[in-house]
Amino acid sequence: MTSTDERQPKHRRRLFWLAAFVIALFAIYSGGWFYLADRVRSEADKAVATLNKSGIEAGCANLQVSGYPLSFAVSCDNLAYEDDAKNLAASAGSFNAVAQIIQPLSPVADLRGPLRTSVPGMVPLWIDWDDLKANVKLSWPLPRRISLTAEGLSGQTDPADDTDPVQLFSAGKAAGQLQPNGRDIDYIGSFGDLEIDPDAIGGRVLPPLDASGEATLKNGLALIGTQLKSLRGQAVEIRRLDLSSGTAHVTVSGPLSVDAEGLVDADLMIRLKDPKAVAAILGAAIPEQKNQIEQGFAALALLGNEPSMPLKVVKGKASLGFIPLGKITPVD
């Protein structure tokens, strides 16, 4: 028997064991995929049943798990939540989340509008968008990062509850990202072409706005899973907040907090670009303080086109440098 004849059986055996290994691996993966799909369905049913026992109606209509074998997708025709005891309700359109086999811990989700909400003390809202996506980096015990991007945002009072709905705002685009930082939560966000309807802010007029910023919610992880009933006792560190419209540009940084009585305290640094343009915007937004604003910003313009000054709020009393801005009412 030649050496070539001896190598052929060995080669066939290697191919056989390789094929057997691939088949076994695929069988294990398939079993795991269908087991996880079944767990998703059963856990969703269990969660809904638990909420129903508490008098809360919640649902993910027509829940489907699909995507085998290259992805794992969960979808619903619509989402709904209603708590009659607290008079809370929310609903949205179809939901779809997909995790690819090569990135199982990085699912991408999209949600169709509109989002309809009903909350005590507020008019029912109707918020819609052209496109809304979420990206999640999963980890344990909390996600490493949650990112949202939206295009074509708009908001109005719910037309089902008001035959003549009030337009509230519109924005060309918006984005936000949350991630844990020790016991705190970091936020990075932006929006563009934001237009606020005058009827939504008591007839005050604001031009289209662009903004971006970074902030940290102190002790934010402790708030997860709790029902936040009040902003009192909360604190935020604003690392950077840029707000602009045309040539007017405002940058804010510093700490802000709300005490147990609902009074705001802040020690912020404000940097302005084109103070006269900023004054024109503030004068239209706060007409009752227009003369004082114009006089104060005229003095600021003497410091150059990009002056800086402190914005201090002590027990709700606000002042921008030497310009009094009035008193902020206690927050809930």
Q: Summarize this, please?
A:
The protein is an alpha+beta fold and 332 residues long. It is 22% helix and 44% strand.
Can you tag this structure with a few keywords?
alpha+beta, 20 strands, single chain, 332 residues, 20-stranded antiparallel beta sheet, 3 helices, 44% strand
Polypeptide structure, described:
The protein is α+β, with helices and mostly antiparallel strands and about 325 residues long. It has a domain at about 1-110. Helices cover about 20% and strands about 45% of the residues. It has 3 helices and 20 strands. It has a 20-stranded antiparallel sheet that branches. Strand 8 and strand 9 form a beta hairpin. Helix 2 (about 275-285) runs antiparallel to helix 3 (about 290-300). It starts with a helix and ends in a 5-residue tail after the last strand.
Helix content: 10-25%
Question: β content, as a range?
Answer: 35-45%
Task: Report the mean per-residue pLDDT as an integer.
Answer: 87
Q: Span between N and C termini?
A: 92 Å
Topology of this protein?
Elements: H1 3-53, E1 56-60, E2 64-66, E3 71-76, E4 79-83, E5 88-92, E6 95-100, E7 108-111, E8 115-118, E9 125-128, E10 131-137, E11 145-157, E12 167-181, E13 184-196, E14 209-217, E15 235-245, E16 248-258, E17 264-273, H2 275-285, H3 290-301, E18 308-314, E19 317-320, E20 323-327
Antiparallel strand pairs: 1-4, 2-3, 3-6, 4-5, 5-8, 6-7, 7-10, 8-9, 9-11, 10-11, 11-12, 12-13, 13-14, 14-15, 15-16, 16-17, 17-18, 18-19, 19-20
Helix pairs in contact: 2-3
